Amino acid sequence: MPYNSSGSWEGTLKEGQGDLAFGLIKTQHSVPQDLGGKGIGTNPEELIVSAAASCFLITLAAIFQFKHVSYQRLEVDSTAEFEVTPRGPKMRAIHHQVKVYMDAKGETVEVEKHIKEAEEGCMISAALSGNVLISASGSIIQE
């Protein structure tokens, strides 16, 4: 099943900007300010860490469903580490810090194991494998 994105760009690398459209999202994009660009809209760095975070959450939700783990909600803060190389920015690592909100009586024994499974099972993680270190850790909040 194909997924599509379209985009445009006008101007130089550092002074330029463009538009992106995918699904229901339409946004501007440019080189981030910390890399010398205009910092307008989003950028590839934000898009890839957002894709990784979304994939991780959905994969963890699927694992919980198949393993019959009851939870109220999942939250993730994902951080990507980049460095500037002579060939351009290079992503080195992504770390997902997930919070699993569960009922006070929820079974927590296997949650850490499932977080690791989601880290390894996400299709974005698989696509980046060998190039980017992906890690995940979590905390359980029983309400």
TrEMBL record:
InterPro entries: KH_dom-like_a/b, OsmC/Ohr_fam, OsmC/Ohrsf, OsmC_Ohr_Peroxiredoxin. The chain crosses the membrane at residues 47-66. Keywords: Membrane, Transmembrane, Transmembrane helix. It comes from the Bacteria. The keyword Membrane applies. This is Uncharacterized protein.
